[in-house]
Amino acid sequence: MAIGDLLIDVQQVAKHYGEGETRVDALREVNLQVHAGEVIALLGPSGSGKTTLLNIIGCIVAPSTGRVELDGEPVFDGHWLRGDLRKLRLDKIGFIFQAHNLLPFLTAEENVSVVLDLAGQSQAVGKARARELLDYLEVGHRAPVKPSHLSGGEAQRVAIARALANRPRIILADEPTAALDSKRAQLVMDLLRKLAAEQEACIVTVTHDEKIFDRFDRLIHLRDGRLEDAGA
Ligand SMILES: Nc1ncnc2c1ncn2[C@@H]1O[C@H](COP(=O)(O)OP(=O)(O)OP(=O)(O)O)[C@@H](O)[C@H]1O
Prior knowledge:
This protein is α/β, with parallel strands linked by helices. The protein has a single domain (6-229), classed as P-loop containing nucleotide triphosphate hydrolases (Rossmann fold, 3-Layer(aba) Sandwich). The protein has helices spanning 50-57, 85-92, 108-118, 123-136, 152-164, 182-198, and strands spanning 6-17, 24-35, 39-43, 65-70, 73-77, 93-96, 170-174, 202-206, 218-223, 226-229. The longest helix has 17 residues, at 182-198. The chain is globular and about 55 Å long. The mean pLDDT is 89. Bound molecules: adenosine-5'-triphosphate. Residues 17-18, 24, 26, 44, 46-52 line the site of adenosine-5'-triphosphate.
């Protein structure tokens, strides 16, 4: 695969929680580069630092030390370099969590268009984009339905549509297939791979789901806050 733009550049990032006797070193001098088109998995035992690393890339958790660049823009260097982190996340990052993260009182379409409302787009633009994405993900016919009436696979596609609404090039997913059977899990992963290729995005997924390991370009193992292997 041709290497695309460098979208995630994590340099010498460490993170500890607490101090003194209660100090936990969640990440120790982690370096990670992810390019456009790549779909990678973060693996490792419970407590190894996967969620912390995902949340640092997602600008939700501040590193203790190190540098982070996203899509060519330095965003953290000892401190956040942008005042408005919410806007930074809206501009650059799409988050896919497990399907139950959809807002229950909104329809499938509204769950997607709400992201564009937050970004200041008109309702008409939000609605059109939501329709386009739901159609692309083959759940357009479910647009008027509330999440409680969607199947697990449909709800996950809506969650993916929502993550993509703002055309982010960095897509972060936390256990995106945990609630799906093997066939659905592989379909979701194939869809994510297609999206990464077509939209020149990268996808970083925390997963324990062995049935999808063959769908990743790289499996990155964390142990005690260190990357064990960043190879293919
Ligand atoms: N907000 C916090 N305050 C204190 N300690 C934390 C906090 N968040 C995480 N930790 C600790 O940091 C370490 C790494 O946690 P993290 O959630 O990143 O691991 P993980 O690999 O995602 O685990 P899991 O697979 O169980 O979700 C753990 O020891 C955890 O207890």
